[in-house]
Amino acid sequence: MLSFRLRFKASLPQNLSKILKLFATRSNILETNSNESEQFRVLDLYPQTKVMQEKRKTRKTSIPPSRATNMPTDQDWPSVWPGARTFHPASVPLPLRQGYQEKGASPNKYANAELMKIPNFLHLTPPAIQRHCEALKQFCTKWPTVLENEEICSKHFPIEIISSDYCYSSPTIRDPLARIVNLQVKLSSLYLDTHAKDKLLRLLGNKYNPETDIITITADRCPLRKQNLEYAWYLLMAVYHESWRVESWEAEKSIADMEYFDWDTSQSRTSLVTLYTWPIPPTDYDYEIIPHATEYKIAVSDLINNGEDQYSVNKYKEAVKNLLNLKCDNKE
Amino acid sequence: MYFLFTYTLFRCNLTSFRREYSVFPSHYVEPIYRKDEQEALFRSEEAMNIAHQQVKPAQITDTCSEFYDARVLKFINTIMRNGDRKLARTLVTKSFEEIKRIQLQRYHKAKTNEEKDNIELDPFVVFHYAVDNCTPVLQLINCRKGGIMYKIPVPISPVRAQHKSMKWLIEAAKEKDDEERFYNMLAKELVSASQNQGRAVKWKEELHKKCQANRAYAHFRWLK
Amino acid sequence: MERTVGQPVNDSFLRRIRKTHSRKFSTVVEVKDEQASQVCSFRTAENNPINHNTDHIARLYTVPIDIQRQIFQNGGLPGKFMKQVTTFQECSIMVRQPAIEIISYLNQVDYTRPVNKYVLYGKFGVGKSLTLCHILHYAFAQKYVLVHIYWAAHWFKDMKEVATSVLSPGCMDLPIDAGLWLKHFKFQNSKLLSELDLKVSKDYVWNQREMTSQGTSILELVEFGMNRIKYACGVIDALIKELKLASIAGKCKTMVVIDGFNAFTSSHTRIRNDNKVMVLPKQVSLAIPFFDITKNDWCNGAIVVTVDQTANKDRRESHLPRYLLGKEGFEHLDPFIPVLIEDYNIAEFDSMIEYYKDRKWIRNITSSGQRELELITNRNPFVLMDQCKFL
Fold first, then answer.
1. Test mutation, C322, C325, C331, chain A, max A CBs within 10 A
2. Could you tell me the residue ranges of all domains in chain C?
3. When you count CB atoms within 10 A of the terminal residue's CB, does the N or C end of chain C come out lower?
4. Cβ contact C354:C391 at 8 Å
5. For chain C, where are the alpha helices, taking DSSP H only?
6. b/e map of A110-119 (b: 16 or more CB within 10 Å)?
7. What is the pLDDT, as a whole number, of residue B224?
């Protein structure tokens, strides 16, 4: 058919009459084959172009507007969101956005998987918690009236026990970290003398924080919290009583082992008294009679105990000058 | 036409890919670090031209110090071996100190005021005099003509002349006994060179004499 | 545009030099004119340190040449300063606050009481040694017997010879150093000692044949030590004891001046004994008498020492006296008066610059150049001296 048409196209101007004749004969033959319609048939030289199919109309369903849009501002939120649940955009009247896209702002809350993934605390608003507390109040005992403020609390209950509970979704509800017990007590709340305090600090080592004055004993070697707590109590007791005990070898402690400089037992005092009584050798090392000796004592102790700096050296100089009765009258 | 265009573009790219030894591209402006030069620059119109250009960072030896002298710096660099600038600087500093000591000694020895005035106490000026006095005006270059080596006197470029003068001064100071220190010898050499004496000046005069002797070959310069 | 280093243009360069040169000559003349008016601004004509007071602070005075020869003949002035002295042809020392302070203490102190100790301290190069020289000159003028060690660390670092001591067993001797010190002592005090005519109070037996009997003069004892340097350390020990006794008796006044005293309390020396074991300073027989004389169990004298970071090897982090002396040294000297020496203040710096200009050490320096020097030296005296050397 195609070849025929091409040929027809080429020779159309010349042999139109011949072709028409030919077609007439062919159509006659076709007519005899289909004898139903008697109508005159239209000559169809070009095949008709297909009519464009109309787009199927999407059926619009009428969705009511999101509940969040017509929520009153003074509604009772804990009743809207009473418990922990996954985020739902229609229930939360907040313009939230979460996630990232290459261009433009972050996606909004509708159909936002990112918002649904993260846990939310919308059920733990302050009024909700307050209601919980109110409901739980009937099961609580009354707070002691004497314990008015933090100071009194820490005075009557100086020991603080810190342990943590863990709650999460796993086959077991027991977390190994829950066994750890911290016992904290202020050093000043313990009854100690100079020796006991010194020894206690040596025994404690880095368990004592000099900045906050707090001793922290951590027990984690037993599998249960109760055992650890008892162990922490035991440790505190042991270290306290041990610090009060005076061992025989402690008498052998020399000056080099002292952390601080004690002027009363030092060479400085001896030389001062010797200097004062010169040329007679001193009988007793009493420094009270020497003028300005106390100032000198403080200056030397500060110089050695607090570390040497320009200020302490100057202070020492002034003390010595007063001691030796010298005046510097030429200061500019 | 199209081909030609692509070709020129290629050439341009090639030139921009030329390998530079400096980390800074060649369009960066040299820094100006002397205060007086900066002031002069800001007064002139040049400052507006380079206001928005990028400037190379100043080198470690570039300083706006009052006591900076470009020629002394050059001298330090000439003395320097193996990049040990600290040592070279120390040597020059010490020899300047020694120059001052020598000159002050002479100053105190001098009896009349005129004699005293004639003694130059500034080591920098002594140094400049010494370098100028040792600077040759001619040099000899070798040329083979008909199997014979001729020495042709030719004028010397200022840079080369200064370098030669500095070299002579340093070499003259290096010829010393083991007990002598280099900076002391250098000081002595600089002082004597500033008075047109000493070995470095003699070497310069020898070179000039040789040039004088070979002046018959001077025209070979053009025959080459 | 600036000319780069690599391309000097000869003729313009020459022109510049001539210009600066001519300028220089003109300024030389100007300085001379100014000299007359500026003479009093940085110099003081008062060359006797006894009369120095606060009015002379930040001015230079000149040590007369004969006194300089007598006190500092065998050392005493720092080496680099000595070089300046020969170049400037005068020994000028600046009168500074710490020296004046100590001199005022020395003037007001009660000499029947035990001696006071003054410890000079400060950072490196602030002029501790020169302040000490000033005080030494004062003591010389006040007719003190001078017991002067110009750098204590020499004995433990660059000692000449080490020998086992005969007189004090268990100690090491430094015979040559001891002989040199005796020579130094004699040089400084020969005139005064011959005037005072001090006698030895007891017999000193050196060996079977040689002894110094009671009643011989101290100068003879010193002579003996210089001739028999084997016993020089013993002689020093005896000499110091005699000086102490004489001072207590009121026959003479003694001034102990030690530069770098903390070398005596150092825990490191280069002295080794026969078993190649390091010897501490207190086991050196030469150091023991000086430990003895720095105690305050005598009167009619004064002790001025310096502590320096460079004097010992083990403690160099701080310049403060307690650290440098260490525990033992502090206990030994305590109670002492620490005197801080600081960098130049503005007045001192200016007068130093003026002095250098006067001595032609630096010339035609502009005010901005002076400011630059002030900034790069931080007004430290030593650094200033170093920085002015090549200008």
1. C322
2. 7-40, 114-340, 346-387
3. N
4. no
5. 10-42, 65-72, 79-88, 97-108, 128-141, 153-157, 175-196, 218-227, 232-249, 288-293, 321-333, 346-358, 367-377, 381-388
6. eebeebeeee
7. 56
- From the list A268, A326, A332, the residue facing C105 with the nearest CB is A326
CB < 8 Å to C369, chain B: 66-67
Residue A110: both structure tokens together: 């509708």
Nearest to B73 among C2, C5, C360 (CB): C5
Architecture in CATH of A150-248: 2-Layer Sandwich (3.30)
Q: How far apart are CA C281 and CA C215, in angstroms?
A: 32
Regions in chain A scoring below 50 on pLDDT: 1-4, 6-13, 27, 31, 330-332
Listed as ranges, residues in chain C with pLDDT below 70 are 1-40
Tokens of C111: 């000499």
Q: Please state the length of chain A.
A: 332
How many residue contacts between B and C have a Cβ separation below 8 Å? 84
Predicted local confidence at residue C18, as pLDDT: 43
Give the tens place of pLDDT for each residue, B163-201.
Answer: 999 999 999 999 988 899 999 999 999 999 999 999 999
Cβ–Cβ under 8 Å, residues C148 and C257: yes
A chain contacts of residue C322, beta-carbon cutoff 8 Å:
303-304, 308, 313
Contact B145, B221 (CB under 8 A): no
H/E stretch holding B169 reads helix B158-174
CATH topology of domain B69-220: Ribosomal Protein S7 (1.10.455)
ipTM score assigned to the predicted complex: 0.84
pLDDT at site A94: 92
3-state secondary structure of C252: coil
**CATH 1.10.455.10 domain position(s) in chain B:** 69-220
Edge-to-edge strands of the sheet including C145-149? C145-149, C254-258, C301-306, C116-121, C337-340
- The per-residue DSSP string of C139-176 comes to HHHTTPEEEEES-THHHHHS-S--EE-SSSTT-EE-HH
Whole-number Å distance between alpha carbons of A233 and A222: 13
Q: Supply the pTM of this predicted model.
A: 0.72
CA–CA min distance B58, chain C (Å)? 12
Q: Contact partners of A by the rule of 3+ C-beta pairs under 8 A?
A: C
CB C21 to CB B120 under 8 A?
A: yes
Chains C and B touch (3+ CB pairs under 8 A): yes
B133 has a pLDDT exceeding 80: yes
Q: Shortest CA distance to C205 belongs to which of C173, C177, C176, C166?
A: C166
Q: Which amino acid appears at position C190 of this protein?
A: S
Residue C2 has a pLDDT of 39
